[in-house]
Every structure is written in structure tokens, then in C-alpha cells.
Amino acid sequence: MTRARLRDLGIAPGRLPTGPLNAITDVAGVRVGHATLIRDDPSVVRTGVTAIWPRGPEIWDEYIFAGYHSFNGYGEMTGVVWLEEQGLLGAPIGLTNTHAVGVVRDAICAYAVREGAFQAFHLPVVAETYDGWLSDADSFPVTQELAFAALDSASGGPVAEGNVGGGTGMICHEFKGGIGTASRVVAETGTAYTVGALVQANYGSRELLRVDGVPVGQEIGTAEVPSHRDMPTDAGSIIVVLATDAPLLPIQCKRLARRATTGLAWVGGIGANGSGDIFLAFSTANTVRAGAGVSDVQTLAPEAMTPLFLAAAEATQEAILNALTAAETMTGYRGRTAHALPLDRLQEVMRRYRPGLSAPSAP
Known about the structure:
Blueprint: E1 31-39, E2 45-53, E3 62-73, H1 80-86, E4 88-89, E5 93-97, H2 101-114, E6 126-129, H3 144-153, E7 171-172, E8 175-176, E9 178-188, E10 191-202, H4 216-219, E11 236-244, H5 250-258, H6 260-267, E12 275-289, H7 306-326, E13 330-331, E14 337-338, H8 343-353
Parallel strand pairs: 5-6, 11-12
Antiparallel strand pairs: 1-2, 2-5, 3-4, 3-12, 7-8, 9-10, 10-11, 13-14
Helix pairs in contact: 2-3, 6-7
């Protein structure tokens, strides 16, 4: 069966409406780019870089508010000490594999210099998950050029999912994982706001996987679809990036980032000891110009945050599931294979638990 997004399969979790693309790029100005590296010689490599631009090139001197949350800290996200101190994001965000965090971080600094960025120094945000089961991570295949390619290719519109960019070699709930995205729209104080999520999903055990509350991981067990059982099932990570056009201050961005935990839990993530579950949220509504003495900003009332919290949870949940339904079976390092979630079986299981589920034709 051709790979598809969750809603193409007739499965639509949550209550809130999606944005037009059901993607993080539904937040105006957000752009996403991928650079994917798949090769078998001189080493077997299944890796890449994903770049998220919160705004266009003006991000270098028109900063936005952001905040982060570490649900379980067995992982890395650079730049968060300064982010916690300042609450400002002034560069694109990078996602890659564990051993390439430094390379991508340095590449964003070099990219800023190449573009003549106003900043005197650079502390970009780059996060990782480990792809060493499918890719020879110790060959250090990610280069500055690959990171530049992800940054240069970023665009609005639909976002490629599954085995792309930083998600190329990732595994999720013992199925092939990777990049996924989704969005939700809420109406608050008479205005519509969008919350978009992009995930790099590389975590979780099979038996905990749930799709809209249905125990899919128990129904499609390892006897039916083999697992990578020679690697501890609590080892792995997930990075969640949330974007919104709601006017939030840094502390509100941090509060929003925490709600990715709820969406992760709905799918079956528990923040296992060996999992790096780190979340970032940013708002595009306010800008702080570098060197400006005073900036006029707006903020959403605290009691108006609750609908955004639900949007963040729902978008995170569906982004993870989109990563699973988009990803294809991949064979990589040492002949290891990560099998894709079988979509026909997913539909069959869902219809058994949800008799009213629509059953569209296979895409």
C-alpha cells in the first residue's frame, strides 16, 4: 500500500480543525527544508539534516520569542542556555543525528556569516536523535554542505515526511520513524491562531503505541512485523518543534512547549530513561529588533492559553503518527531493517475498534 498521511487513511484524531496543509508551515512565514544522505559506499549511511526557518532572512536581526522544555534529557539541544536567559530566537533551527549536532550548529553559524547576519555572535538551536542503528554514525557523514543544502532548500507549503532530512535513519515504536508534521487552528478572543508541530520521532516501544486511543502496537506485534530487538527499546529520542502565530511571551512559549508531552503520551511515549525528549516552541507574532531600545509587543491573556495547549497536544500527536504512516521500510547499516507500519493493517485494526471509521481508497 502506498504510504500516506494519517487523514488520507480516514483516521482523524482530536477535536480541533487543522490548518490548510496540516503542517507547521500553516504558520505564516515558517519554512522547512531537508537534505537527505543515503549511500552504501564507503560506508552505509542513512542520515540527513532538517532546517526550520521561523521567519525569512530577517530572523537574523528581528528576533522572535521562544521557550523550551526537556521532558527527559538524554539528548542534546544546543543554544538553550541562552534561550532560557534571553527568551529570543535569532536563527534557523537544525535537526540531525546525535554525532552531527556540532557540525550543524557550526554550519548555521557559518551560514549566518555568509549571509552577513547582523549578530556579533551566534548560538543557534540544533537538536538530535540517534540514527546509529540504521546508519554508520561513527563515519561522521554529515557535512557543512549538507546543512547548507537543508537551509537553502527550505520553503513554505507541504512538508516532506518520513525518511527525509534528520529523520532519515530514525525508528519510532519499533517501526520506521522519521519526520512528521501537523497543525491545529483555534479561535481565541475573536481571532484564529494556528499551532503547528514538526517532530523527529525516534523513540518508544511497540506495545505502547496507540493511535487515537487504539492499542495498535499490541495488535500489530513483533511476531507480525519484526522489530529491532537487539537495541534497547527505551533507547531513542523525539524532538518536537512547535510554531504559533499567537502573540506569546517567552514564558508562554515555554508553557506551550511543555504540552507536547501530552501529545507524546497519547501516542505512547513515556519519557523512558534512555530517551531524549526535548521540545521547543516559538511565536512569530512579536519581533524584537536587534539594537532597538524598546519593542512594542502583545501577549495573550493567561486564561486564553488553554485552547493553544490542546492544539499543541493534538498537533504533536498527529505529527508523530504522520511520521509513522509516511515512513517506508529501510535497510541500512549491517543489513539491519526497520519495517514500516503496515497501513492496511492499521486501517483494519482501527475499523475494528472504531466501526464508524471511514475507509477511503488506498492513495
